[in-house]
Structures are given as structure tokens and as C-alpha cells.
Amino acid sequence: MRPVRAPLPAPVASPVIKWVGGKTKLLPELLARLPDRFGRYYEPFAGGAALFFRVAPSRAVLADSNADLINLYSAIAEDHAAVVRRLQHHRTAHSEAHYYEMRERWNQQRPSWNAAERAAAFIYLNKTCFNGLWRVNRSGAFNVPIGRYIDPPICVPEALRAAHEVLARAELRCGDYKTAVSTATRGDFLYFDPPYDPLTPTASFTSYTANVFGPDQQRELAETARTLVSRGCKVMLSNSDTPFIRTLYKGFQIDRVKCSRAINSNAAKRGDVDEVIVVGGY
Ligand SMILES: C[S@@+](CC[C@H](N)C(=O)[O-])C[C@H]1O[C@@H](n2cnc3c(N)ncnc32)[C@H](O)[C@@H]1O
């Protein structure tokens, strides 16, 4: 039986974008399984980074293979006020025409923008796009239509300042999770939230970036988790409750939890699904 951890202080920050697979709803289950104490906090599949913002660790590595996402976090860490200024412009200019112009410019011009411009455009498109569904096509172009919102929260300066406080303490890395975790040592805690193993062959959602995360990648991740545990690290992972995932993590503690999936383009398919939280090394 693991020792009961002291309750965390009140939340200081929360995700600044909506992200498919976001873990806000699963937070109570994840928090209940955090180790009592740990060294550095690692979240190498950051996405919206719901657990990272809730834990607000004093020493952390936050990573993702999506360069736009890591640019967003770096810009908020370095100069959140510059991001806020540009978001104020988007809030004033918001209209259908502005959305599609920004979508076009995002796809064509963002390499020439500075970090704050890219971060603000990312937040603007994310908060106003259909269903908050950030999706790119095979060539990496963002292609989601505008959403129907009365008053989307385009610019919330207090939320960005709170996120800045937490992000400024973290080391931000863009790239594959294996590189991100290579510096983890005994006592460090790692939370893995990879693209999920699909519940059905057609349910696969892997287009956060133009990359794919298939069965071979799931196998490799389980190997990495075992290596980290044998190095003395504490590991927690979430995934769908499939026989394949249960086989990969044999020997770990595997708890089934229910989670409602808010983002599914087919409303009939929204609802509770079973997920697992896997824990090892503590
Ligand atoms: C399920 S999402 C994480 C959701 C996150 N926990 C949240 O609260 O929003 C998975 C993330 O893994 C990233 N990703 C996919 N393949 C990766 C890889 N090989 N290495 C690192 N990150 C990867 C995606 O860009 C995506 O942001």
C-alpha cells in the first residue's frame, strides 16, 4: 500500500489551450496516484499539460514532439505580456474573416513570426476553432473550420500570468519522449500520456502532429517505462483499457478508471470510456 500523500495546495494554473486527450477530467484519479515525494517532474507527452499545471512542480521537464506547442509554452515562460498584447488584438479583430485569414497565415507564414506572435495565433485559433479540435492534415496544415461560440475566451491575462509562473520553472524540450526522459534519474517522477491505443481499428486519432503513434511505438514506450523503473524512477501512465495495453504493462499496478471523452466529432460517440492508469516504481 502506497503512503497517503499530503493534499496539494490550491490550483495555481490550468491549461491555456484545449487539447484532444486533455486530462482535466481525469485529474482526481491521477492526483490520487501521485507518488508521495519525488525529485524532478517529467511530462514528455505534454499536450495541454493538465497534470503539470495542477501539480505546479518546482523542478520539471515538459516536452512534446509538437514544435508549435513547445513554442507556445516557451513564449509564455519568457514574455507572457507580449502574448497577451497580441491576443488583445485578436480579441478585438475576431470575426469569421479574421479567423480564416489567421488560419491561412498560420499555415503560410508562421516560420517568419516571432515566438509571441506564433503563440498568440495558436491560442486564438485554438479557442475559436470548431470544438477546440486542433487537427492537422498529412502535410501538417491546420485545417479546422471556425467554431460557433458566442464569446470565446480568447484573451484571459490572469490565466496566462498563472501559466507563466509555472512554465518559467520548467525546462521545455521539443522532440521525441525518449530523448526527453533520457536525463531522468532515481527518485524522479514521470507521467506519460501518449496518443492512446485505439479502442477500435477506426477510432485511431493520431494527428496532433503529422506523426503516427502505432503498436510499435506503444511497445517501445512500455520498454522505456520498464527501463526507467529499473533505474529507480517513479512512473505513471494513462492509456485506453485494451488487452494490448494490459499485456504491455504486466507486472505494473493497472487501475481501470472511467473517463468521459468530450471531443468526438460524432456526438453519439461521446460518453464514458474505460481507461487505465498504470503505476510502477512506487
Ligand atoms: C494525449 S496527448 C497529451 C494530453 C495531455 N496530457 C493533456 O492534458 O492535454 C499526447 C501528446 O503526445 C504528443 N506526442 C505524440 N507522439 C510523441 C512522441 N513520440 N514524443 C513526444 N510527444 C509525442 C502529441 O503531440 C500530443 O500533444
Gap from first CA to last CA: 9 Å
The structural class is: alpha/beta
Hetero groups in this structure are:
S-adenosylmethionine
The residue-averaged pLDDT reads: 91
CATH fold-level assignment of the largest domain: Rossmann fold
Strand content: 15-25%
Q: Please identify which CATH superfamily of the largest domain we are dealing with.
A: Vaccinia Virus protein VP39
Structurally, how many domains make up the residues?
2
What are the SSEs and their pairings?
Elements: H1 27-32, E1 41-43, H2 50-55, E2 60-64, H3 67-93, H4 96-109, H5 115-128, H6 157-167, E3 170-174, H7 177-180, E4 189-192, H8 215-230, E5 234-240, H9 243-248, E6 253-261, E7 271-280
Parallel strand pairs: 1-2, 1-4, 2-3, 4-5
Antiparallel strand pairs: 5-7, 6-7
Helix pairs in contact: 3-5, 3-6, 4-5
The structure holds S-adenosylmethionine.
Supply database-style keywords.
Adenine-specific Methyltransferase, domain 2; seven-stranded mixed β-sheet; binds S-adenosylmethionine; 9 helices; 2 domains; alpha/beta; 282 residues; Rossmann fold
